[in-house]
Design a protein that fits this description.
Elements (H helix, E strand, L loop, with lengths): L8 E8 L3 H9 L1 H7 L6 E8 L6 E8 L5 E12 L3 E6 L4 E9 L2 E9 L6 H22 L3 E9 L3 H9 L1 H7 L8 E4 L6 E7 L5 E12 L3 E11 L2 E3 L3 H4 L5 E9 L2 E10 L4 H20 L10
Antiparallel strand pairs: 1-7, 2-3, 3-4, 4-5, 5-6, 6-7, 8-15, 9-10, 10-11, 11-12, 12-13, 12-14, 14-15
């Protein structure tokens, strides 16, 4: 007589310093999922789809940054209780339950999931906990910031769009929507320091001191702002710098049958929200026009 092996249930949890509504939002919206759903710095999530309702489906694409491997994490929801609980079944049949216990400005997130039979329980627990810890860090970093999301489809491949966006000459053209004198100084390499700078109507120089968090050619660019430029001074501490410290910009390039879906997720200082809501679409439209002209970089594109 064959004995049925009992499924092992693994539990991971964390306490996040944020109200449950904020935690729920950042957990469930695809433009946020792509920023935290990874167990280590060697991986990223370039794509997420989420139909958060009973019988709704989700897809999270996870890839190694060196392009060596990747997989789709997919499943279907069985229970969705707003701000309290999410239950789903992974496509391999395993069940997952997530609970959100809000207490003023703190939220406990607890995940219970069926173990699989390939990797050890300790290995699985460590991996799921690492992703949950990544989520905690993301929420607590962005809690005081607002976020904007923009998308545009460009009739050119990701390589063309990526190169056009970052090239020194064309960068100044598409970002002229923000400032006619916009330019950058520094390198786009991962870990590099970079300055985004321009001159206002009074002739005063201003801008941002930033760091390139990630740069995966033709796929993803992540920028973290760490301070501001005021005249000839770089300010990376104090009240002015704190307005932007921790704010990030994330650009994802997705190949859609030879075209590119460029997605932008930008944290903002609240006082600039209206301005950026107006200017970002203009800037992306300029980038689209440049790319679709299919003019080789270095030639006249105006």
């Amino acid at each position: 007589m064959e004995t049925k092996t009992e499924t092992k249930v693994i539990i991971v949890q964390t306490v996040i310093k944020a109200p449950v509504k904020k935690v729920w939002k950042l957990w469930s919206e695809p433009n946020h999922i792509i920023n935290w759903c990874n167990a280590s710095d060697d991986w990223l999530t370039p794509k997420a789809e989420n139909d958060l309702r009973v019988d709704g489906k989700f897809l999270t694409r996870m890839e190694a940054k060196d392009g060596s491997s990747g997989f789709d994490f997919t499943g279907k929801y069985e229970k969705v209780e707003l701000y309290k609980e999410i239950d789903y079944v992974i496509d391999d049949g395993r069940k997952v339950q997530i609970t959100f216990d809000g207490n003023n400005n703190e939220t406990t997130v607890k995940e219970s999931f069926d173990a699989e039979n390939i990797n050890s329980v300790d290995f699985q627990k460590t991996g799921w906990q690492a992703i949950l810890d990544s989520f905690k860090k993301y929420v607590e970093t962005t809690i005081s910031k607002s976020e904007l999301h923009f998308e545009i489809e460009i009739n050119a491949g990701p390589e063309k769009v990526y190169k056009t966006m970052l090239d020194e000459k064309t960068y100044s053209i598409w970002t002229s929507a923000f400032n006619p004198t916009s330019r950058f100084m520094g390198s786009w390499e991962k870990g590099s320091r970079i300055i985004f700078i321009g001159t206002d109507n009074d002739g005063k120089v201003g801008g941002m001191v930033s760091r390139i968090r990630e740069n995966i050619p033709d796929r993803y660019v992540g920028i973290d702002h760490i301070g501001v430029i005021q005249g000839d001074k770089e300010i990376t501490s104090g009240p002015e710098a704190e307005k932007w410290a921790g704010v990030s910009e994330n650009y994802t390039f997705t190949d859609t049958n030879g075209k590119t879906l460029l997605s932008v997720d930008a944290g903002i200082n609240d006082e600039f929200e209206t301005y950026l809501q107006e200017t970002y679409p203009k800037a992306l439209h300029i980038l689209k026009v440049i790319c679709e002209k299919q003019v080789p970089l270095g030639e006249n594109i105006t």
